Amino acid sequence: MTTETLIWLIPLPPALAFFLIVLFTNKNKALSHSVGVGAAVLSWLASMVVFFRALGVEHLGEHPFVSSVNWLPTGDTWFKIGVAIDPLGAAVLFFVSITIFMIFLYSVGYHNFGQPKGDHDRAGLPPHGATVTDEQGHKHTVPSVEPMYSRFFAFLGLFAFGMYTLVVSDNLLTMFVGWEIMGLCSYLLIGFWYGKPSARAAAIKAFMTTRIGDVFMLLGIAFLYSATGTLTFREIFTEEMLQHLVSIDPHFLGLTGAGLIGLLLFIGTVGKSAQWPLHVWLPDAMEGPTPVSAMIHAATMVSAGVYAVIRMFPLLSLDHNTMTVVAFIGTFTAIFAATIAVAQNDIKRVLAYSTISQLGFMIAALGIGAYVAAAFHLITHAFFKALLFLGSGSVIHGMEHGVLHTGNHSVDPQDMFNMGGLRKKMPITFWTFLIGGFALSGFPLLTAGFWSKDEILADAWANGHLVVFVTLALAAFMTAFYTMRQITLTFLGEPRTKEAEHAQETPWTMTVPLMVLSVFAIGYGWVGIPENFLNLQLAPSWFHEFVGGTLAEHPEVIPFNPIPLIVSLVVALGGLLLGWLYYRNVNSAKEDFFQIPLLKNKYYFDEAYQVVFIKPVIWLSEVFTYKWLDQGLIDGILHFFGPATGGIGGFIRQYIDLKVINEFIGDGLAAVTQETGRTLRPIQTGRIQQYMMLSLVILAVVGALLYFMLGAGL
Amino acid sequence: MNFIYEHLLLVILFFPTLAALVMLFLPAGENKLLRWFAFGASLVPFILSVWLWTQFDPNAVGYQFEAQYPWYQALNSSLHLGMDGLSLTMVMLTTLLTPIALLASFSINDRVKGYMMLFLFLETGMLGVFMAVDLLIFFVFWEVGLVPMYFLINQWGSPKGEREVRSIFGKFTMSARNYASLKFMIYTMGGSLGLLLAVQMLGVLFGNYDLQYITANWSNYSKDLMGISVSTVKTVAFWAFVIAFAVKVPLWPFHTWLPDAHTEAPTAGSMILAGVLLKLGAYGFLRLVLPLYPAEAKYFAGALAFLATAAIVFGAFASFGQTDFKRLVAYSSVNHMGFVVLGIAAAASAVGTQDATIALNGAVLQMFNHGLSAAGMFFLVGVIYERTHTRNLDDFGGLFPLVPVYGGILIFTSMASLGLPGLNGFISEFLVVRGSLPLLPVYTAISMLGLLMTGAYILKGIKQVLHGPLNEHWAHGEHKLTEINTREILVMAPLMVLILVIGLWPAWILDVINKAMMMLF
């Protein structure tokens, strides 16, 4: 099979799985997950084949795999859609296919496949556990299987389809299609337990917040399309087309055409990748089942936002103003979210804010022009953050086991202050989580996170972006600190609750993905070790060579400088050390210094948005538009016509019909006739002589008249 | 067979009427027979129009399957029928939606005969507008469609509900369906008064009503008329046309009849009302306004775009502000049809350019797409209304576990209405936005606000009906909500298949539209 055909086929299995499960296999759990996982395997295999074939092509950047077909007729021409795999696409495909596969596998265990049906479980709510009786007649409460098990795999399949479509697309429009399908899936999956009002609200929030970005992006796409006549990347990123875009003046804020388009597209990313000020949806999205968190917040959807801006980099980098905005938003988000993460107690929420912060790193990197560093961090982050999310899911699962054991449902299995000492109960989860956490903190040399984060800092330093450098270094320090806080509170020390004592390691379907991902959380960093690291003149960085080849001009290798390296080392190790030293002695939330209300309440953004946007929109809809405009003003005018017409009709009847026609003309004529008749009645005497006399007189008069008239005429 | 082929349009047009007349002689009490007869009869025009589609040559210029029959010879008006890519798309939509609406009406038990007959008459009325190549015939069919719809709303509309009519003269109440049907009838007729006058003027001026002849001669007609300058006459006549069609589309601020009529109409009535009748207005813009008044349309494109944008934005806001599920869906039509007019306005401002063609492609496809998704949405509202006898969103809640299949279908159709990429609505909205942006950048940018709010009201509907804690009232006993049945799934199936197919592979229909737009403008 040609590589191009194979690329077309990559997104198909998960989509087929979606339809198969929805239409046919939804009653059968085993069949449904087989279909789902099978589809994930097929796509993964195809992706690997494509990836390794792509490795074998020299100068893949100049000769990518491409294939396209006519899709929409637009006057005399056609709008084409197609697939393309260039170095960036291949690198992204690699991590996407692996993480998606792992997440599918993990979901089998996470949703308690093989466990009995719950006692009171209901579709739309998380499973509450089932009571079983063992041989001795003892009753135990064990985790119960998810009531909507099949549906979950269907949604995951559609999600995977969206992500693959986005990655293999050679144009912005189908990329946007994949982008939005993921938006739908995130809505469906965050609201998977739709019976919970909080999950329902979170799902709507996620969809609407990202949609704000999406409508701007759509506008940007339409603008780009009308300016260039194409949306295919390789046709836009030609020298003359880019020059043409720069030369357009949209008369808007002094931006060039390229700048405005770039900005509009970037707003889409701000929504999708949860950058300030559209970051509010992501923490709430933790309402979804944990594999979803991994899928949305690590492997796919949020990465898609960053991927989109990396893809559009040649266009984005044309306008200095746009780049400044990008760099500012990214840097600000990185530090802003990191401060909130320090004060969160929910194990998944810490990771959520950490994700926002790390995405900020990538966006900031892109804003200062560090193309390769941004792409590198995107991939390493996807691996270790998927690992961390799945690990946290494993922890929660273990804790839920403890909760079911003790039967005390008031204990929140996600609150880190209820945990402690889990390393002994859940060793695999602990070690893999440690690897993920260290990678996130940028633990030197060993972990992937170190290499990618170091590259961003080195780039910022080398290109003189001092503010970005300092802010990101500070954010990196906080990252290490809150990560160690999380690890210490969760796994180290002694169990703080009975539930934590009875926590249990999770089944192999959950731990195997953790182990696989931890391999990449370490190993993937090595492909990006800079060639002049410590001035050792190692082999040229494979990642830099490969992904850098996507651009027309290969980005330069920056010279080695000890300062950013030392800073990376200090912030990572310092943060980890401080976090451990402080939190090993903290036993409850009350003792925690960082439970600052401003941070705990996320700087009150939700409340502010409620007052500034949501309330006014509701008023605008219910009161202004509907009550005042439609029912008051417009219908008021219409209703004027009804009664007014009725009034005119009434007037006509009252004063013309009744008075003039009926009384005056109708009745009047009758009266006149009657009166005349009455007056003339005396003539009717009945005497023949009088009649004869009258006839004679009339005859004489008529005769005289005729005589004179005719005579005059003659 | 040969006869049918030669008079294909005539057969499609009058077959429903013929069937309705035959129904007159069927026994009144036999509901099953009457339903199946009407449904079967409505399949004939559908099959014939599929045949028509296969026989149609999208590359040929002008009308195809033309046929002319004498009608009102004293006025030189004839029953002149013809078909181009634009009318073909609309005829296809009409003949597809009618059987679907009739199948949806199988739950009607009250005076089935009259109901079914009115529906078949309605189909002829709608088809006539799309096929007419004669202005007077166009007008006749335009008005003919009103009558059955009036009775459908007035007699078979929701029996409950009162409407308070407030005005500066005070207030009074009347039954909601009476109010709605009256408002629909009078508003549309009032709107078309000017159209009638303008049509008569053209007839007097040219001595006949042939659309092709008038189109060819009117736009460059430059003599003064009755002592008034031709540009004034044209401007007045332009607005007379526009207002008639704007009421039907409906364009803001002529839209307030729509939420009332849609909400009170029986389910199938709403399906046809939203699915086809609104398209008559948009079709009028494309068939008459743009070809007859290119200069005026260009001059007033900004005003039209303003009204369209107002429809998009206010329609979306008003929809979001509803507590009645059906009214929410009804307002969504205002929002969606706004995009059609936005595309038309953009095209009017720069006829002949590629941007204009793209905008028109989007507008026509949007007409077709909205026909599918709005009909589907109204049907789904009807399904749940039939079972619960309430449309109040606050009365539902958490119904998903009770009706998983219905829920899935509702989410799918809602997403089509929302314009989710991968489904049909996205393609047309994207084309409209793409075509309009370079021509009317400000209005297009503002209409994005409407697109955003589309998401808000769609999600509100799903949230209130399916998601959240289960309202136990519907879970047990006599109120227990039953799942969507096979007949109802069969109603939705063709709509859903088309929604998906057009979303993934729009070229088969868009190619016909595109060529028609290239030739027309």
Could you characterize the architecture of this molecule?
The complex is a heterodimer of chains A (714) and B (521). Chain A is built from 28 helices and four strands. By secondary structure, chain A is mainly α. Among the domains of chain A are: 226 residues, no CATH class; 27 residues. A two-stranded antiparallel ribbon of chain A has the order 1-2. In chain A, β1 and β2 form a beta hairpin. In chain A, α5 runs antiparallel to α6 and α15 runs parallel beside α21. Chain A is elongated, with a radius of gyration of 39 Å. The relative contact order of chain A is 0.07. The mean pLDDT of chain A is 88. Chain B is mainly alpha-helical. Chain B has a domain of 222 residues. Chain B has a two-stranded antiparallel ribbon. Chain B has a two-stranded antiparallel ribbon with strand order 3-4. In chain B, α14 packs antiparallel against α15 and α18 runs parallel beside α20. Chain B is globular and about 75 Å long. The model of chain B has no long low-confidence stretch (mean pLDDT 91). The chains are: A mainly alpha (714), B mainly alpha (521). Chains A and B meet through β1, α6, α7 and α27 of A and β3, α14, α16, α17 and α18 of B.
Q: Hey, roughly how much beta strand do the residues of chain B contain?
A: 5-15%
Let me know the number of strands of chain A.
4
| Rg of chain B (C-alpha, Å) | 22 Å
Low-confidence stretches of chain B: none
In whole angstroms, the N-to-C terminal distance of chain A is 118 Å
| Overall average pLDDT of chain B | 91
> Taking Cα atoms only, what radius of gyration of chain A do you get, to the nearest Å?
39 Å
